[in-house]
Amino acid sequence: MDYIELIDKNNIPQHIAIIMDGNGRWAKLRGLERSQGHQAGAATVRKLVEHALNLGVRYLTLYTFSTENWNRPIAEVAALMALLFESIEEEIFVKNNVAFRIIGDLDKLPENVRERLNACVERTANNDSMTLVLALSYSAKWEITEAVRSIASKVKAGELALEDINDTVISSELTTNFMPDPDLLIRTGKEQRLSNFLLWQAAYSEFYFTEVLWPDFDKEELYKAVYEYQQRQRRYGLTGEQVTKEEKQE
């Protein structure tokens, strides 16, 4: 099936978040080192940015490295940090008018990596075709904990009334406060769990799980995921009849 031809260009998810899973298994199946799987995964990221941009996606968030990933073997973490440093090619963002952002506990990153990432963020800040967001040293529990601390501090200082705390206030304290919640959340590599990723923001995201390993997730696979998204009715707690009535009124 040619999913590229089936896509409704008027119903493109504005924010796609992806849990990129399967680099290690991809390498193992080919008798390669895990680091080679991560290199293949990085190449997929570069291609996917352009595919998403051409599709009309406004925000693309990639779960790149979780806080739990720091517990992996030291050699693998070091290789991942080196790959991350090498993979940030500012010219790609400039050429495609893509803004670059980072979310996560960045203080844990090596200084040279952090400096290079921040430089790329600053240089691409005014780009507006699409925003690529890397979730680095990130976990949703860490993010929510930090938000709670910030809100508690504001209440203590008299800057925020307890009764004024609502979901909008909480969302504004999250690291993702500059973009809408994801419409579509994709996980590659067969597993079907969130793995501590965007727990608050994904409350009404459409989930798409695929057995395809991340290095093999190509343009056709992206369009397939978007096509499946377009076959669903997003109800946000309403009945299907209510949503249909609202759509007709629009």
User: How do the strands line up in the largest sheet?
Assistant: 3-4-2-1-5-6
- The ordered string of helix (H) and strand (E) elements is HEHHEHHEHEHHEEHH
List low-pLDDT spans: none
The first-to-last residue Cα distance is 31 Å
**Mean of all residue-level pLDDT scores:** 91
Shape: globular
Beta-strand content estimate: 5-15%
The description of the largest β-sheet is: 6 strands, parallel
Helix content: 40-55%
Enumerate how many helices there are, as a single number: 10
Count every beta strand, where a strand is a DSSP E run of 2 or more residues: 6
Oligomeric state: single chain
Q: How would you describe the overall organization of this protein?
A:
- With 250 residues, the protein is an alpha/beta fold.
- It is built from ten helices and six strands.
- Strands 3-4-2-1-5-6 form a six-stranded parallel beta sheet, sandwiched between helices.
- Strand 3, helix 6 and strand 4 form a beta-alpha-beta unit.
- The longest helix has 22 residues.
- The model has no long low-confidence stretch (mean pLDDT 91).
List the helices and strands and how they pair.
Elements lengths: L2 H4 L8 E5 L3 H7 L4 H22 L3 E8 L7 H14 L2 H7 L1 E6 L7 H13 L6 E9 L1 H17 L10 H7 L10 E4 L18 E4 L9 H12 L9 H10 L1
Parallel strand pairs: 1-2, 1-5, 2-4, 3-4, 5-6
List its traits.
single chain; alpha/beta; six-stranded parallel sheet; 10 helices; 45% helix; 14% strand
